[in-house]
Amino acid sequence: MSTEFISREITIGNLRLGGRQPIRIQSMTNTPTLDTNATVEQVIRLAEAGCEMVRITAANMHEAENLKNISRILKEKGINLPLIADIHFMPKAAEIAAGIVEKVRINPGNYSGSHHKAKKYSAADYRKELDEMVLNVEPLLNICTRHNTAIRIGINHGSLSDRILYKYGNTAEGMVASAMEFIQICRKKGFGKLTLSLKASNVQTMILANRLMVREMLKQGMDYPLHLGVTEAGNGTEGRIKSALGIGSLLAEGIGDTIRVSLTEAPEKEIPVAHRLVEFYGRRATKPDVKKRVQYLKSGEIPSHQRTAVAFIDETKNFPEEAVVIFMSYPGLPEEELLLRSPVDFNLAYENKKADGLLIANGPYRNNQHLGELALEILQACGLHYSHTEFIACPSCGRTLFDIEKVLEKVKKRLGNIKGLKIAVMGCLVNGPGEMAGADYGFTGAAPGKINLYKGEKIIFRNLPEAEALAKLEKLIREK
Ligand code: SF4
Fold first, then answer.
1. Distance, CA 116 to ligand 1 centroid (Å)?
2. Contact 177, 209 (CB under 8 A)
3. Ligand 1 atom 3: the closest Cα is on which residue?
4. For the CA atoms of the chain, what is the radius of gyration?
């Protein structure tokens, strides 16, 4: 797909979003929502960094109520950027927040009626749950209409309803179907101030879900703005590459109205990354001329001094003369830009024409080892070749139950080099076993200072003291 998707323009507080507006940049606080001062200060730091909307978790009614204090103090300080309440599990918290902040983000999976894993759904069961969902959603829509509050329908690959899982499985199609169920209810009630997000930690699933969503909207004459993000992208190089790959690839083809780069780092660090992606690939950007930077070379054409920097998708290939390598050249491009441009360019080039490997040149600054590692990281983020442990790590928020930034670094140091292994490090269980399903092992906050360890979807240890959990995880993995 290459045609730009022009969404409807909506307002969120004083911010115009969608249509021909610039791509809006957002992030989320990771302070406890009941810690009013810390949250206010973090929102101010985000605003100063160039963030245009800030999401704050509202895990329960108290937290939802406290949004009033946060919003008031921010306004008193002259900070008028829209606030978004992040709701999971508790529709009542959404109803309180909808009367306070400019937008609420809900997960349709929490409005869906019963949850019985083994349940089979007859057509009547399915219908019944949808009817229940209408009743559950109606009060929120009434409050949002009264207060002019927007809603983000936040679909997460890890937490689809049982009904959707039964019919579609944990798939991109299921994500679109889940969004459509909610949209149809909103349309029947005449509510149109919607944005949509379809997020996944698997980048290709995220890209596919958004493309399918656009296709479905076009088919049904809909035009809701899209929020893009790769969830649980992790930190550092890995987090930036996965985020760029998902968000940049879609922006480059004209999809996306607002973005959040989720990094397991201080939220302020997300903002320059997001700005760069918009600058490179957003609708006002000079579209990247991938063709100029990318060539398809036969292995035999690659000069011998560059050969150690080639990463092959099938590593057993080892330089057959006829293998095709995507060659991308960025003379003198600074590291932080290289990390964001090269994954997107590779993805666009590979979608255009399949190849066997990747070679990046960035002379005169980086050596072959560094460039080879970058190429391997990109192939892994694309799901084409797994060369080291993949980490699925949430960005943290007010629900986080341990110091995830520090823990993630420690886990990476001890377990970062296991080929083909996927480890999830999650601040809480919101996206729960659904996200775990994609990981071989999970390290998840269970209560303050307590960790649950998973193998696949199965809990192996519950409520371990945080200090013991990493050693137990390592033992579990090494003894498998
Ligand atoms: S998984 Fe992480 S980011 Fe998501 S709600 Fe839990 S602590 Fe927050």
1. 23
2. no
3. 396
4. 22
Report the C-alpha gap between 270 and 169 in whole angstroms. Answer: 32
Q: In testing the pocket of ligand 1, which one of 232, 394, 452 has its CB within 8 Å of the most ligand atoms?
A: 394
Which DSSP string corresponds to 259-306? E----SS-GGGHHHHHHHHHHHHSTTSPPP-HHHHEEEEEGGGS-GGG
CA atoms within 13 A on the CB side of 93: 23
* pLDDT tens track for 279-300: 999 876 665 566 778 999 998 8
| Contact yes or no for 255/228 (Cβ under 8 A) | yes
Among 31, 106, 404, 430, name the best residue to mutate to test ligand 1's pocket (greatest count of ligand atoms within 8 A of Cβ). Answer: 430
Q: Do 134 and 186 touch, CB atoms closer than 8 A?
A: no
Query: In percent, how much of the chain has pLDDT > 90?
Result: 77
CA 163 – CA 106 distance, rounded (Å): 17
| 320-332 pLDDT per residue, tens | 778 999 999 998 8
∠271-262-427 over CA atoms, to 5°?
A: 130
Written as six digits, the tokens of 284 are 């006002």
Q: Is the dihedral of CA 169, 172, 173, 176 positive or negative?
A: positive
Q: Which two tokens stand for residue 332?
A: 């003198």
Q: Could you tell me if the CB of 229 is within 6 A of ligand 1?
A: no
- Which domains can be identified in the chain, with CATH numbers? 10-281 (3.20.20.20), 290-381 (no CATH), 390-478 (3.30.413.10)
Q: Indicate which atom in ligand 1 lies nearest the CA of residue 395.
A: 3
Please give the structure tokens belonging to residue 444.
């998840």
Task: Answer yes or no: are the C-beta atoms of 138 and 98 closer than 8 Å.
Answer: no
